[in-house]
Write a structure and sequence with these properties.
This protein has 131 residues and is of the alpha+beta class. The protein has helices at 57-73, 82-92, and strands at 29-34, 37-41, 100-106, 109-117, 120-127. The two termini are 18 Å apart.
Amino acid sequence: MSCLQCDRPHRRKGEFAPMGMLIRIGFGTADVTRDGITILDGEHMRVPIPSGVGVRAAERRSARVWNRLHRRLEDPDGNLRLAAVERYISRLGRRLTHRYEVAIHGPLWSARWLRVGPSRWVCVERGDGFA
């Protein structure tokens, strides 16, 4: 089944996500979390470098690091895909001691995937979105 708005095949609860899955919805939110903390944002791949009075050097450095990380992970079209997230997690050298999730919330559709093993993301929640 797919949405008429975004033409995206929507997975059922219990199905595995393909590694080519796009982590972006266009209107809504799409992020990757580790233990409940957002580590990657598919909707806002780049953030503006802050400048002006009162902006600390650490804030500018943080924005530069964020942008550099996302530039390495995005595909040629500037999108974040599940395969890139998997490469990022494997580079960290982490085992399954952390809880990694992908959540996409858009109009008429939402879903959440949980990483259950290397390159294995299962849909654990599916909803009607926020509209």
